[in-house]
Amino acid sequence: MDARIIWPPYFDALLSGMTATITSKGQITIPLRIRQHLGLKAGDKLEFDETASILVARRAVDHEQWRAAMGEWQKASAQALIGHPWADTSSAAILDDLRGGSVNDGPSEP
To answer: Is this structure's pTM higher than 0.70?
Structure first.
């Protein structure tokens, strides 16, 4: 059995000593290979997780755009469910159905 660890391609850059220097204004340049891999471009916003024990940055989400997209998805999914047996069913009941029964069908407590 091959016990090799398969790293994402950008890990090679990280493990090979790719670094960025923080300027006196607190700015860094994200290395090109990382930007390309993550699809980052000028003007993109990142948010940082100050609770993490390592530096964690992720693409910032525009909350208004997120709410609008979720609203559109809810409308589209409601339309798609018209006439479907699950139209008025809770998510928990749908999951039970997909799993082949109800969570109440399991072994009883002693």
So the answer is: no
Break the chain down into helix, strand, coil percent, rounded to 5.
40, 5, 55
Q: What number is the average pLDDT over the span 84-99?
A: 88
Residue 33 contacts residue 10 (beta carbons within 8 Å):
yes
Per DSSP, 109 falls in state P
Say if residues 46 and 57 touch (Cβ distance below 8 Å). yes
In Å, how far are 29, 36, 100 from 7, measured between CA atoms? 23, 17, 37
Considering only CA atoms, give the Rg of the chain.
23
33 contacts 13 by C-beta, under 8 angstroms: yes
